[in-house]
Design a protein that fits this description.
The protein is mainly α. Helix content is 68%, strand content 5%. It contains 8 helices and 3 strands. The radius of gyration is 19 Å and the shape is globular.
Amino acid sequence: MRLDRKQWKIIAGAAGIAAVAVVTTMLILGAIAAPDNDTVPDEDVAALVNGEAITADDVLARQMREYRLTGSWPDRANMLEQLITEKLLYQKATQEGYVPTLLETEVDLLVRLSDMGMTRQDFELQLGWQGLTWERYLEEHQEQMAIGVLLAAELQWPPVTDEEVREYYEYFSEKYPDSTRAFEEMEEGIRMLIDRQRKSHALAPFIEDLRDRADIEIVQPEQ
């Protein structure tokens, strides 16, 4: 199903969190991308997902990115599982017609950079420091946008009520009195936290179904 312009506008806002998170993470950590090779030697393949390769370089790049974020070297198997999940989600987004055009992707990225007080030139300079081009990063942003749109369109979970926010605040204030601020200061953060939890609960069976239907082959086990 190919979305028309109106449908894109309706769900783009809900999908935007994923895309802007990628931009922000790139600015903080540096986008470490594996080489973009059309042909991958067999010895470099870490896993095959419905025939599409995830390379050893992809896994190493994800490990390095996680290391910059947490300060500890992540487990290779966990990073490979993350990449498999992302590959499955992007494949599903492609099948359902949720992948934006490069022009739509570029407009989205420019708007987000503007909201962050950056110009394209500023961003391209940072990309250059990390050996990336605007075009290469645009492809990554396109994939993240597609996944965000897929999840916004396909997943459903109940909205968070004011009563639930108040109950969570009371629980938190009793358990962590020294960390509790005024309700008005914490209200929006609590609402977002509960919403993220519900989204995670909705996402788990969705991903499980994708994995059950997929042909996944781990070529390189834990090293």
